[in-house]
């Protein structure tokens, strides 16, 4: 019971922080820059525990946070593309440094270093692509797209848990995540698409559908987030199984680490960006 209370309290504060931060651009940028840094620091700490692996935690973390701020500045119309030059220099340094460090496994050091940027820094930074858009030459901030990603992921988790508990018989991916079922995944997906259509209706009624999506396109966005969010969850599960750990950390009482809480979003955010840009081009 005590663990349930701790999990509930943590979940309430977690959801409240995510929802509230999207109400202002500055709050979103600051919170997710912090999330980016904490997640990369956690990831690099885990991989450094592997035999013969030595990743520069500090530079990887600082580089990832800088990239997030650079994306925010560029997409917000504050800075030019030149803001990315220091980040590129840091990546080149991390590659070249292995020539002189004489590590036992430089190839894996490179791989995990780049993974910290591609798997964590890039997806979080793409929140800025969802949040800032150019309209008539002016760049505006909108919470609708980035907040929808997280809301749909939370609804999918809830729907999958309920449907899986009641109807789950066929394992979705038993080798990696034996607790997931096809029934739960399908139920969560249907619930998300229904909620996505409801979001379309409410935003249309109140004139805040700034994405310009129709009901079917909103449902498609929901389904995209569900599919890639599930893959994101499975990818992190495979990562933890490879390392032989249960949780990625303990920074969130009752909920594990940063990777445990944001695993689904690391695949869902890039997928949402690709989906919305594809819709815009059609």
Describe this structure as you would to a colleague.
There is one protein chain. A hairpin with a 3-residue loop joins strand 3 (171-173) and strand 4 (177-181). The chain is globular. The mean pLDDT is 93. The strands form two sheets. A two-stranded antiparallel ribbon has the order 1-2. It has a two-stranded antiparallel ribbon with strand order 3-4. 72% of the residues lie in helices and 6% in strands. With 282 residues, it is mainly α. It has helices spanning 2-21, 25-48, 57-75, 85-101, 106-125, 127-131, 144-167, 182-205, 215-243, 258-262, 265-281; strands at residues 132-135, 138-141, 171-173, 177-181. The longest helix has 29 residues, at 215-243. The protein has eleven helices and four strands; from the N terminus they run ααααααββαββαααα.
Summarize this structure briefly.
Helices cover 72% and strands 6% of the residues. It contains eleven helices and four strands, in the order H-H-H-H-H-H-E-E-H-E-E-H-H-H-H.
Topology of this protein?
Blueprint: H1 2-21, H2 25-48, H3 57-75, H4 85-101, H5 106-125, H6 127-131, E1 132-135, E2 138-141, H7 144-167, E3 171-173, E4 177-181, H8 182-205, H9 215-243, H10 258-262, H11 265-281
Antiparallel strand pairs: 1-2, 3-4
Helix pairs in contact: 2-3, 2-5, 3-4, 3-5, 4-5, 5-11, 7-8, 7-9, 7-11, 8-9, 9-11
């Amino acid at each position: 019971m005590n663990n349930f209370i701790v999990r509930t309290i943590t979940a309430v504060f977690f959801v409240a922080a995510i929802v509230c931060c999207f109400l202002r651009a500055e709050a979103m940028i600051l919170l997710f820059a912090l999330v980016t840094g904490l997640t990369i620091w956690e990831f690099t700490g885990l991989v450094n525990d592997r035999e013969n692996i030595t990743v520069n935690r500090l530079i990887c973390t600082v580089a990832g946070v800088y990239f997030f701020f650079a994306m925010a500045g560029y997409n917000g119309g504050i800075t030019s593309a030149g803001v990315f030059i220091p980040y590129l220099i840091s990546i080149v340094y991390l590659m070249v440094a292995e020539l002189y460090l004489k590590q036992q496994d430089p190839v894996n050091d490179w791989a995990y270093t780049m993974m910290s940027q591609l798997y964590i820094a890039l997806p979080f930074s793409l929140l800025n692509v969802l949040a800032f858009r150019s309209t008539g030459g002016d760049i505006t901030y909108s919470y609708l797209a980035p907040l929808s990603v997280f809301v749909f992921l939370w609804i999918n988790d809830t729907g999958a848990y309920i449907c899986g508990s009641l109807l789950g018989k066929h394992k979705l991916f038993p080798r990696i995540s034996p607790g997931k079922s096809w029934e739960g995944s399908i139920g969560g997906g249907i619930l998300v698409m229904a909620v996505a259509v409801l979001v379309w209706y409410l935003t249309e009624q109140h004139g805040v559908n700034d994405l310009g999506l129709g009901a079917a396109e909103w449902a498609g966005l929901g389904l995209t987030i569900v599919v890639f969010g599930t893959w994101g969850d499975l990818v992190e599960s495979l990562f933890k199984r490879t390392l032989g750990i249960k949780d990625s950390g303990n920074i969130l009482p009752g909920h594990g680490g940063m990777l445990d809480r944001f695993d689904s979003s690391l695949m869902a955010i890039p997928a949402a960006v690709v989906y919305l840009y594809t819709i815009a081009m059609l």
